[in-house]
Write a structure and sequence with these properties.
The chain has three helices and four strands. By secondary structure, it is α+β, with helices and mostly antiparallel strands. The chain folds into two domains: about 30 residues; about 90 residues. It has a four-stranded antiparallel β-sheet, with helices on one face. The model has no long low-confidence stretch (mean pLDDT about 85).
Length: about 140
């Protein structure tokens, strides 16, 4: 009958030096990855936020268009845009009647003689949308 004796110097597992070297290498590699991808990860939500803001401003213009289609009155639309923000959250940049000269340049008119209302609105982040409301008269 054979008896196998095990020595007390068992080499099952890792030494402390191997564990420390592995941790140091992993931390160096992790730092390199974070510095390479860090700004991409932290700024990855910006396009989604920008898209939501643009959609909210588009909804403001849609509300203005719906108001105009219900009244078909450019004077009432101009007054409603200038008086309140019932259409949504926005800042009015332009809300005036315009015409075009022979070369296609814009001429501002004090009255709705040519029935063209230019409306430009922007939101707090600087996104701007311009719309031209025109009647068939």
């Amino acid at each position: 009958m054979k008896i196998f004796l095990r020595s007390k110097n068992c080499n099952d597992g890792f030494t402390l030096i191997e564990v420390i070297v592995t941790l140091v290498l992993v931390s160096i590699f992790g730092t390199m990855l974070f510095s390479y991808f860090g700004s991409s990860i932290t700024r990855s939500s910006e396009p989604i936020t920008h898209l939501k803001q643009a959609y909210a401003l588009k909804q403001v213009v849609e509300n203005m268009t719906a108001y105009y289609l219900s009244t078909m009155d450019l004077d009432a639309l101009q007054a409603a845009i200038g008086e309140s923000n019932d259409f949504g959250t926005y800042t009015v940049v332009n809300n005036d009647f315009i015409d075009f000269d022979a070369k296609g340049r814009i001429i501002e008119c004090p009255c709705p003689a040519d029935n063209r209302l230019r409306v430009t609105v922007k939101d707090g982040s600087g996104i701007t949308i311009s719309v031209l409301f025109v009647t068939d008269d």
